[in-house]
Write a structure and sequence with these properties.
72 residues, mainly alpha, 89% helix, elongated
């Protein structure tokens, strides 16, 4: 147990060095790519929201008509 406690500074240093090496290999997107993908995500969110709102409205009306028909 004591041996493992004494190794944490070396393990932490090794972890940080590995992390720095990996971060040097990262390829970051350009500003143009970030804008393009953000636009796609925002448009997709609004498209899905409109689709689900329409489906919800149609099912709501259908269920209301069904209840009205059978409750008379």
């Amino acid at each position: 147990m004591m041996d493992r406690v004494g190794q944490w500074p070396a393990q932490t240093k090794s972890y940080i060095e590995d992390l720095q090496q990996e971060m040097r290999r990262v390829t970051w997107p350009t500003w143009k790519q970030v804008r393009a993908t953000t636009t796609v995500v925002i448009v997709a969110v609004f498209a899905f929201a409109a689709y689900f709102a329409l489906i919800d409205m149609l099912f709501g009306r259908g269920i209301t008509k069904l209840f009205d028909t059978f409750s008379k």
